[in-house]
Amino acid sequence: MSIDALMRHRATVEVRTVTGTDTAGQQVETWATAAAGSDVPCRLTPVGQGQSRVPPMVFNKATHVLAMRTRVLDPGESRIVVDGVTYTILGNIDRSGAGDLMKVYLEVVDS
């Protein structure tokens, strides 16, 4: 079975943009779909299901792991939406060495 056959979910990659400041002088942030970031094939699994080991440090907060063939943007400036659930990107690892198969560690965003 190919890796692509295992990618049964679809993700949207969103990027953070600053649209100005509010009356208190705080930045107003919005999220927009990244270029080529819509309907991206992926595989989403909860941490612990089929994962041999989650790397330490920042990744120890991960609730889910995502495999995708799209290079993920900067974790601080992008996020992932799958099946209506929004996830913060904690970090990602290039599993192929060529940037075409990423393993992305995610944490569910609090509503």
How would you describe the overall organization of this protein?
The protein is mainly beta and 111 residues long. The protein has a single domain (3-108), classed as Bacteriophage SPP1 head-tail adaptor protein (Thrombin, subunit H, Beta Barrel), CATH 2.40.10.270. It contains one helix and seven strands; from the N terminus they run H-E-E-E-E-E-E-E. It has one helix spanning 3-6, and strands at residues 9-21, 27-33, 40-46, 64-68, 78-82, 85-94, 102-108. Strands 1-3-4-7-6-5 form a six-stranded antiparallel β-barrel. The chain is elongated and about 55 Å long. The mean pLDDT is 82.
Short description:
With 111 residues, this protein is mainly beta. The protein has one helix at residues 3-6; strands at 9-21, 27-33, 40-46, 64-68, 78-82, 85-94, 102-108. The protein is elongated.
Tally of DSSP helical segments: 1
Estimated share of beta-strand residues: over 45%
- Gross morphology: elongated
- What percent of residues adopt helix (DSSP H or I)? under 10%
- What is the count of structural domains? 1
Measured on Cα atoms, how large is the radius of gyration? Answer: 15 Å
Q: What CATH architecture label applies? A: Beta Barrel
Quote the CATH topology: Thrombin, subunit H
Helices and strands, in order, run as: HEEEEEEE
**CATH homologous superfamily name?**
Bacteriophage SPP1 head-tail adaptor protein
What's the total count of β strands? 7
- Stretches where pLDDT is under 50 for at least 5 consecutive residues are none
Derived structural class: mainly beta
